[in-house]
């Protein structure tokens, strides 16, 4: 398959973002990220028309970014426009100019589709525990709110509340201090405009936490981190209120010098902050973690789901991509995965463990990547595998999932998990228990294909009597080397399952 580059364009109210991704067969790599401020919505909202100056800026910047993409060679463009364009009466003029002058065909997406893509881009790339989380993205013209867990979204909405929109509506002079009465009016407008959304969110139960994915939220998180002096990009209410109170009392020049602020946001940050403060107060969400994931990442994930074919998932594609980048033995990786999953399934059927399908998936992915550390060196390659996986940026995985996969890969050979190992100590007690079980299956599966010949076709557990489990090994050839290796794992099996492990080979 010919190599090509795909450019994902996000034309927002405040800025244009571009992600360039290189595709080579099933493999892909993000090779360039660009962001340019255009203020497309500046002066638009009172008249619902994009100004000539803003339109010129947008076309010029997009043309420049298209030329950048085309410099990579054969390419494809995926471009969407959001709030400023969908709300403008003259949006058709902009769309036509972008096509004719910049060479960019743009789709104007709905607010709900924007919210869905933001959820997709963020939720697949952050660590989420159990329960519902709030996802919030504040653009120049709209605010997207999503409530979901790590499996699916349960609520989507797009509100006509944005940092530029509210600044245009309520702030006469962004370069002057903003009075308390004006700020109360902004918050009141936010509350009135979001009342139905807030009622529906409240009906979904308590929120565990939240994620903020826009430039406004990232900048507010930076200022809150400085205020708390902890360096954590997280928004909590008290530091946020203090930051906004100080910013309101400043003129534009002083605001641009505020610790942590992005100077180009100084004129709109107070209005953006009013949205965050009000939504946090009304929903009761305890915090918002800032993330640089967002709409562009959602566009990429959506593109992969639509184009990859064959039933593969984004996670599988990410695993294969990393493995191939590290020149792994693909046939061996698939064999070890299938053997590990067969052991997992039969052990669960025999009542040896009660782990769920999510753990099964992570075991399969870790099995695929267990040997990627050999790309660095055979010596200690299990440690190198841990480093590569834990520092990868695989789409579709949460950071906590990558952490567990990395530890599992580390334990595919040599010693079983021990408290003296730092990587194991860093896990919670619950995670440690899962790793002990899953890593045992991986070590057994690796041993069953230790010669890399595929002589062992499958294996399963069978509990013959209390205190004893037999592994039935189905082989298409000589596998004495593998069976000898299994003897070294009998003690670990006894430690984990409190049973003796025996082996029997059957021809197939």
TrEMBL record:
The keyword Hydrolase applies. Residues 314-466 form the Ppx/GppA phosphatase C-terminal domain. This is Exopolyphosphatase. It comes from the Bacteria. GO terms for biological process: regulation of transcription by RNA polymerase II. Residues 24-306 form the Ppx/GppA phosphatase N-terminal domain. Keywords: Hydrolase. It comes from Thermanaerovibrio velox DSM 12556.
């Amino acid at each position: 398959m010919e190599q090509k580059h795909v450019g994902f364009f996000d034309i927002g109210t405040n800025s244009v973002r571009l992600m360039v991704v290189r595709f080579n067969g099933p493999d892909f790599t993000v090779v360039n990220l660009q962001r340019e401020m255009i203020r497309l919505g500046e002066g638009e909202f009172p008249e619902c028309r994009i100004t000539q100056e803003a339109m010129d800026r947008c076309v010029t910047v997009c043309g420049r970014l298209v030329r950048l993409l085309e410099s990579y060679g054969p390419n494809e463009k995926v471009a969407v426009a959001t709030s400023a364009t969908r709300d403008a009466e003259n949006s058709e003029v902009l769309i036509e100019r972008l096509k004719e002058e910049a060479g960019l065909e743009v789709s104007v997406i709905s607010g709900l589709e924007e919210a869905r893509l933001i959820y997709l881009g963020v939720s697949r790339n952050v660590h989420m525990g159990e329960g519902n989380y709030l996802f919030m993205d504040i653009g120049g013209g709209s605010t997207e709110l999503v409530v979901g867990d790590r499996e699916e979204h349960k609520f989507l909405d797009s509100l006509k509340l944005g940092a530029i929109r509210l600044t245009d509506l309520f702030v006469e002079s962004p370069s002057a201090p903003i009075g308390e009465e004006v700020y109360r009016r902004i918050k009141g407008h936010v509350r009135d405009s979001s009342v139905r959304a807030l009622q529906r969110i409240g009906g979904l139960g308590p929120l565990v936490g939240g994620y903020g994915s826009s430039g406004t939220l990232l900048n507010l998180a930076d200022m809150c981190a400085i205020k708390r002096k902890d360096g954590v990009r997280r928004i909590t209410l008290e530091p946020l209120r203090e930051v906004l109170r100080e910013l309101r009392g400043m003129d534009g020049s002083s605001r641009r010098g505020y610790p942590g602020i992005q100077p180009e946001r100084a004129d709109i940050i107070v209005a953006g902050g009013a949205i965050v403060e009000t939504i946090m107060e009304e929903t009761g969400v305890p915090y918002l973690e800032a993330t640089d994931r967002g709409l562009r990442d959602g566009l990429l994930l959506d593109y992969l789901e639509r184009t990859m074919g064959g039933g593969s998932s984004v996670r599988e594609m990410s695993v294969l991509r990393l493995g191939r980048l590290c020149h792994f033995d693909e046939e061996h990786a698939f064999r070890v995965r299938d053997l590990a999953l067969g052991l997992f399934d039969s052990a669960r059927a025999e009542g040896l463990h009660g782990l769920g399908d999510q753990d099964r998936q992570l075991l399969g992915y870790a099995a695929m990547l267990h040997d990627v550390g050999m790309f660095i060196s055979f010596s200690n390659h299990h440690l190198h595998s841990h480093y590569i996986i834990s520092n990868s940026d695989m789409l579709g995985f949460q950071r906590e999932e990558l952490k567990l996969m990395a530890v599992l890969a580390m334990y595919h050979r040599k010693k079983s998990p021990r408290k003296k190992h730092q990587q194991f100590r860093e896990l919670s007690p619950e995670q440690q228990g899962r790793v002990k079980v899953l890593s045992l299956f991986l070590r057994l599966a690796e041993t069953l294909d230790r010669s890399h010949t595929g002589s062992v076709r499958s294996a399963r557990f069978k509990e013959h009597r209390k205190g004893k489990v037999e592994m039935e090994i189905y082989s298409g050839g000589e596998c004495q080397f593998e069976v000898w290796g299994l003897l070294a794992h009998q003690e670990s099996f006894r430690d984990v399952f409190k049973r003796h492990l025996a082996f029997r080979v059957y021809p197939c």
